[in-house]
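Support request from a user on the community tier.

User writes: "When I paste my structure tokens into the form, the page sometimes reloads and wipes my input. The last time it worked, I copied everything first. Here is what I submitted, just in case something in the input itself triggers the reload:"
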């Protein structure tokens, strides 16, 4: 799970899991991770969305492509995650690899209080 980020009444958290390859198959080792940054101004209300993406990883460990699955996830969140994932680095391997990740993004905004 990536850390919970909080700014006043605005919080978000991202959890992730490898969907494929299964744990019994050798998975690429993540060596460098960039955290996505969301700003309070980008969300008018709370949301929770699941984003599934396929990463194509080159032999040198760089991400060649990020392919989001079609679905009902929040398009803004999906685009931001894809930008972030393109910057991830994995340990080099003997061949190109494909990995499917499932991310759950939860954003909580605090409703303004009336005075």
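"...and here is what came back when it finally went through:"
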């Amino acid at each position: 799970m990536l850390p919970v980020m909080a700014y006043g009444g605005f919080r978000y958290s991202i959890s992730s899991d490898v969907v494929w390859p299964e744990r019994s198959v050798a998975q690429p080792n993540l060596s460098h991770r960039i955290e996505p940054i969301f700003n309070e101004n980008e969300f008018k209300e709370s949301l929770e969305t699941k984003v599934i993406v396929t990463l194509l990883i080159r032999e040198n460990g760089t991400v060649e492509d990020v392919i989001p699955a079609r679905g009902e996830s929040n398009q803004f969140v999906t685009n931001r995650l894809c930008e972030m994932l393109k910057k991830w680095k994995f340990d080099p391997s003997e061949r190109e690899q494909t990995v499917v990740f499932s991310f759950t993004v939860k954003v909580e905004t605090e409703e303004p209080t009336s005075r």
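Agent notes: The reload is a front-end session timeout and is unrelated to the input. The chain has one domain: 5-109. Residues 75-85 form the longest helix (11 residues). Escalated to web team.
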